[in-house]
Amino acid sequence: MTAPASVQVSGPVHGPAEVLAVKTVGAFHHLSLVAPGVGERSRPGSFLAVSVGDGHLARRPFWIHRVGPMGGHRAVVEIVVEPRGPGSRALAALPAGAHLEVTGPLGRPFALPREPARCLLVAEGYAAAALTTLAERLRERGCEVRLVLGGADDSHVLEPLAARRSVGQVEVAVGDLTAAVLHSLPGADAVYVAGSDATHRFVAEAVAGSEVICQLALERPMTCATGLCRGCPVPVLDDHGDAHVVRGCVDGPVFRAGRVDWAALA
Asked: What is the pLDDT of residue 143?
């Protein structure tokens, strides 16, 4: 039912970026970046690796939330930052006009349906940023899109008003998403999830054994974000059920739910 993910004509771009605008919404900081070549190559599910500080901190991966025109620039890239550690706090504190090094777009994006389908999107916390452009592409293809949008509290629910304007059918779930997901699953042809490992596993188990195609945007700790260091292992199962390990940054971050070896991931 789904087509293979779009193949990028050229690889990721590494180079300087400028912070064009910053805003704070709830618990999250939104940074709009002028990063030539990145936005034009981005696909739903792509991420951006950002160099933070003076080089003593590893690069940080962030979902590409939006790409669009701003301030005379054609393809400004917006990322969402939740300041939790030294790297994300340093990035969230950057003012407009600051410069930094970025690499992107990176990763294997979502596969889109070949024909109109009933799609359920499950988005949690800042990871909901991974599904914004996906929702737009799905609607452009004539798909019916429903969104379960959650967070630990109101401040950690990403842009519910904007989601209602762009998606229409949105159910906000603060705290536990399970009841909202189970309520929205019947009738879905495809499910796309971006959130915590616990939410990924719950949705994967909920659709297991059905014909529903489920894709997950997994987050793993990353160092290089380009596959060279192999520091972001994801245990998966092949067609024969045999386990092996792939790299989350280049073989993912998007995976079929039935391919993930959940017992090994835990």
From this structure: 97
